[in-house]
Specification:
Blueprint (H helix, E strand, L loop, with lengths): L5 H39 L6 E6 L2 H11 L5 H7 L4 E7 L4 H10 L5 E7 L12 E11 L4 E13 H16 L5 H30 L4
Parallel strand pairs: 2-5
Antiparallel strand pairs: 1-2, 3-4, 4-5
Protein backbone atom coordinates (compact mmCIF):
# COMPACT_ATOMS: atom_id res chain seq x y z
CA UNK A 1 0.00 0.00 0.00
CA UNK A 2 1.18 3.50 -0.86
CA UNK A 3 1.41 5.15 2.54
CA UNK A 4 0.92 8.59 0.99
CA UNK A 5 -2.59 7.74 -0.11
CA UNK A 6 -5.51 9.16 1.90
CA UNK A 7 -6.90 5.63 2.38
CA UNK A 8 -3.85 4.76 4.48
CA UNK A 9 -4.23 7.83 6.68
CA UNK A 10 -7.93 7.15 7.12
CA UNK A 11 -7.31 3.54 8.11
CA UNK A 12 -4.64 4.62 10.59
CA UNK A 13 -7.06 7.09 12.18
CA UNK A 14 -9.75 4.40 12.42
CA UNK A 15 -7.24 2.01 13.93
CA UNK A 16 -6.21 4.55 16.57
CA UNK A 17 -9.88 4.91 17.57
CA UNK A 18 -10.17 1.12 17.80
CA UNK A 19 -6.90 0.88 19.75
CA UNK A 20 -8.30 3.36 22.27
CA UNK A 21 -11.25 1.01 22.86
CA UNK A 22 -8.86 -1.92 23.10
CA UNK A 23 -6.78 -0.07 25.70
CA UNK A 24 -9.87 0.50 27.85
CA UNK A 25 -10.80 -3.19 27.62
CA UNK A 26 -7.23 -4.23 28.31
CA UNK A 27 -7.10 -2.15 31.50
CA UNK A 28 -10.30 -3.81 32.68
CA UNK A 29 -9.05 -7.34 31.99
CA UNK A 30 -5.63 -6.69 33.51
CA UNK A 31 -7.22 -5.21 36.65
CA UNK A 32 -9.39 -8.32 37.11
CA UNK A 33 -6.40 -10.64 36.66
CA UNK A 34 -4.17 -8.62 38.99
CA UNK A 35 -6.91 -8.66 41.63
CA UNK A 36 -7.19 -12.44 41.26
CA UNK A 37 -3.43 -12.78 41.63
CA UNK A 38 -3.35 -10.65 44.79
CA UNK A 39 -6.33 -12.42 46.38
CA UNK A 40 -4.73 -15.84 45.88
CA UNK A 41 -1.37 -14.62 47.19
CA UNK A 42 -2.98 -13.21 50.35
CA UNK A 43 -5.11 -16.30 50.87
CA UNK A 44 -2.55 -19.09 50.49
CA UNK A 45 0.81 -17.30 50.42
CA UNK A 46 1.63 -18.31 46.86
CA UNK A 47 0.15 -17.43 43.47
CA UNK A 48 0.67 -19.30 40.18
CA UNK A 49 0.87 -15.91 38.42
CA UNK A 50 4.62 -15.34 38.15
CA UNK A 51 4.31 -12.29 35.87
CA UNK A 52 1.55 -10.41 34.06
CA UNK A 53 2.27 -8.06 31.16
CA UNK A 54 0.13 -6.41 28.48
CA UNK A 55 0.46 -4.62 25.17
CA UNK A 56 -1.45 -3.08 22.24
CA UNK A 57 -0.17 -3.90 18.75
CA UNK A 58 1.16 -0.96 16.78
CA UNK A 59 -0.58 0.05 13.58
CA UNK A 60 2.50 -1.02 11.59
CA UNK A 61 2.49 -4.45 13.21
CA UNK A 62 -1.18 -4.96 12.43
CA UNK A 63 -0.69 -3.86 8.80
CA UNK A 64 2.13 -6.37 8.42
CA UNK A 65 -0.10 -9.13 9.81
CA UNK A 66 -2.97 -8.20 7.48
CA UNK A 67 -0.63 -8.37 4.50
CA UNK A 68 0.91 -11.66 5.64
CA UNK A 69 -2.53 -13.26 6.05
CA UNK A 70 -3.93 -11.79 2.84
CA UNK A 71 -6.66 -9.82 4.65
CA UNK A 72 -8.08 -6.65 3.10
CA UNK A 73 -6.72 -3.53 4.86
CA UNK A 74 -10.11 -2.36 6.11
CA UNK A 75 -11.07 -1.55 9.69
CA UNK A 76 -13.97 -4.05 9.85
CA UNK A 77 -11.78 -6.86 8.53
CA UNK A 78 -9.16 -5.92 11.10
CA UNK A 79 -11.67 -5.91 13.97
CA UNK A 80 -13.11 -9.31 13.14
CA UNK A 81 -10.04 -11.22 11.96
CA UNK A 82 -7.12 -9.86 14.01
CA UNK A 83 -7.97 -10.89 17.54
CA UNK A 84 -4.67 -10.15 19.23
CA UNK A 85 -4.63 -6.36 18.85
CA UNK A 86 -4.88 -6.25 22.65
CA UNK A 87 -3.00 -8.92 24.53
CA UNK A 88 -2.02 -10.05 28.00
CA UNK A 89 0.80 -12.50 28.70
CA UNK A 90 0.83 -14.49 31.91
CA UNK A 91 3.92 -16.48 32.88
CA UNK A 92 3.90 -19.29 35.43
CA UNK A 93 6.84 -21.05 37.05
CA UNK A 94 5.53 -24.54 36.31
CA UNK A 95 3.89 -25.95 33.19
CA UNK A 96 0.91 -27.49 35.00
CA UNK A 97 0.13 -24.07 36.50
CA UNK A 98 -0.70 -22.89 32.97
CA UNK A 99 -3.96 -24.86 33.19
CA UNK A 100 -4.60 -23.80 36.78
CA UNK A 101 -4.37 -20.16 35.70
CA UNK A 102 -6.54 -20.79 32.63
CA UNK A 103 -9.29 -22.32 34.77
CA UNK A 104 -9.18 -19.36 37.15
CA UNK A 105 -9.44 -16.84 34.31
CA UNK A 106 -12.32 -18.64 32.62
CA UNK A 107 -14.34 -18.33 35.85
CA UNK A 108 -14.09 -14.52 36.03
CA UNK A 109 -17.72 -13.31 35.63
CA UNK A 110 -16.90 -10.28 33.46
CA UNK A 111 -15.18 -12.42 30.83
CA UNK A 112 -16.94 -14.21 27.99
CA UNK A 113 -14.63 -16.94 26.71
CA UNK A 114 -14.73 -17.04 22.91
CA UNK A 115 -12.28 -19.88 22.35
CA UNK A 116 -9.01 -21.43 23.48
CA UNK A 117 -6.00 -22.71 21.55
CA UNK A 118 -3.81 -25.20 23.36
CA UNK A 119 -0.35 -25.29 21.79
CA UNK A 120 0.93 -27.45 24.64
CA UNK A 121 -1.26 -30.34 23.54
CA UNK A 122 -0.82 -29.41 19.87
CA UNK A 123 2.52 -27.56 19.44
CA UNK A 124 3.22 -25.67 16.24
CA UNK A 125 5.62 -27.26 13.76
CA UNK A 126 8.58 -25.32 15.14
CA UNK A 127 7.85 -26.41 18.73
CA UNK A 128 5.97 -23.31 19.91
CA UNK A 129 3.95 -24.08 23.03
CA UNK A 130 1.50 -21.79 24.79
CA UNK A 131 -2.15 -21.63 25.83
CA UNK A 132 -4.19 -18.86 24.22
CA UNK A 133 -7.59 -17.76 25.50
CA UNK A 134 -9.71 -15.21 23.67
CA UNK A 135 -12.14 -13.39 25.94
CA UNK A 136 -14.62 -10.62 25.24
CA UNK A 137 -15.41 -7.80 27.64
CA UNK A 138 -17.87 -4.96 27.37
CA UNK A 139 -16.80 -1.32 27.52
CA UNK A 140 -18.90 1.81 27.29
CA UNK A 141 -18.19 4.44 24.63
CA UNK A 142 -19.38 7.83 25.98
CA UNK A 143 -19.05 9.47 22.56
CA UNK A 144 -21.17 6.92 20.70
CA UNK A 145 -23.28 6.33 23.85
CA UNK A 146 -23.24 2.55 23.51
CA UNK A 147 -21.47 -0.53 24.80
CA UNK A 148 -18.92 -2.38 22.69
CA UNK A 149 -17.57 -5.91 22.91
CA UNK A 150 -13.78 -6.05 22.64
CA UNK A 151 -11.72 -9.23 22.24
CA UNK A 152 -8.56 -9.68 24.29
CA UNK A 153 -6.02 -12.44 23.72
CA UNK A 154 -4.57 -13.93 26.90
CA UNK A 155 -1.40 -15.99 26.43
CA UNK A 156 -0.35 -18.26 29.28
CA UNK A 157 3.10 -19.88 29.29
CA UNK A 158 5.50 -21.50 31.69
CA UNK A 159 8.67 -19.53 32.29
CA UNK A 160 10.68 -22.00 30.19
CA UNK A 161 8.38 -21.87 27.16
CA UNK A 162 8.20 -18.10 27.46
CA UNK A 163 12.00 -17.99 27.27
CA UNK A 164 11.89 -20.24 24.18
CA UNK A 165 9.30 -18.01 22.49
CA UNK A 166 11.22 -14.83 23.32
CA UNK A 167 14.45 -16.17 21.83
CA UNK A 168 12.69 -17.58 18.77
CA UNK A 169 11.00 -14.21 18.19
CA UNK A 170 14.34 -12.39 18.55
CA UNK A 171 16.05 -14.59 15.97
CA UNK A 172 13.13 -14.48 13.53
CA UNK A 173 12.98 -10.70 13.81
CA UNK A 174 16.27 -10.51 11.91
CA UNK A 175 15.55 -13.52 9.72
CA UNK A 176 11.79 -14.17 9.25
CA UNK A 177 12.52 -17.28 7.16
CA UNK A 178 15.17 -19.33 8.99
CA UNK A 179 16.58 -22.47 7.41
CA UNK A 180 15.00 -25.88 8.11
CA UNK A 181 18.08 -26.68 10.22
CA UNK A 182 17.39 -23.74 12.52
CA UNK A 183 13.70 -24.67 12.77
CA UNK A 184 14.64 -28.24 13.67
CA UNK A 185 16.96 -27.05 16.41
CA UNK A 186 14.23 -24.89 17.89
CA UNK A 187 11.94 -27.90 17.85
CA UNK A 188 14.57 -29.99 19.64
CA UNK A 189 15.04 -27.22 22.22
CA UNK A 190 11.28 -27.16 22.83
CA UNK A 191 11.29 -30.91 23.49
CA UNK A 192 14.21 -30.52 25.90
CA UNK A 193 12.29 -27.81 27.77
CA UNK A 194 9.29 -30.11 28.02
CA UNK A 195 11.51 -32.66 29.77
CA UNK A 196 12.88 -29.89 32.01
CA UNK A 197 9.37 -28.76 32.96
CA UNK A 198 8.37 -32.30 33.89
CA UNK A 199 11.53 -32.69 35.98
CA UNK A 200 11.02 -29.51 38.00
CA UNK A 201 7.36 -30.36 38.59
CA UNK A 202 8.45 -33.70 40.07
CA UNK A 203 10.99 -31.90 42.26
CA UNK A 204 8.30 -29.49 43.45
CA UNK A 205 5.86 -32.29 44.20
CA UNK A 206 8.53 -34.26 46.06
CA UNK A 207 9.46 -31.28 48.22
CA UNK A 208 5.85 -30.44 48.96
CA UNK A 209 5.05 -34.02 49.99
CA UNK A 210 8.13 -34.48 52.18
CA UNK A 211 7.66 -34.00 55.95
CA UNK A 212 9.28 -30.87 57.33
CA UNK A 213 12.65 -31.56 58.92
Amino acid sequence: MDKTQPIYDNLKSEYEDFATDCSAALRLVEARINNLDQKIERSVGYSPFFSITSRIKTFESVMEKLERKGIDPEIESLKHRIRDVAGIRIVTLFRDEVYEVANLICRIPDFTVVDTKDYYKNPKNNGYASLHIHVQVSIYDPIEERSKLITIEIQIRSISTNMWASIEHRIKYKNPNPSPKVEERFKSAAKALEVFDKTVMKLRDYEESSPES
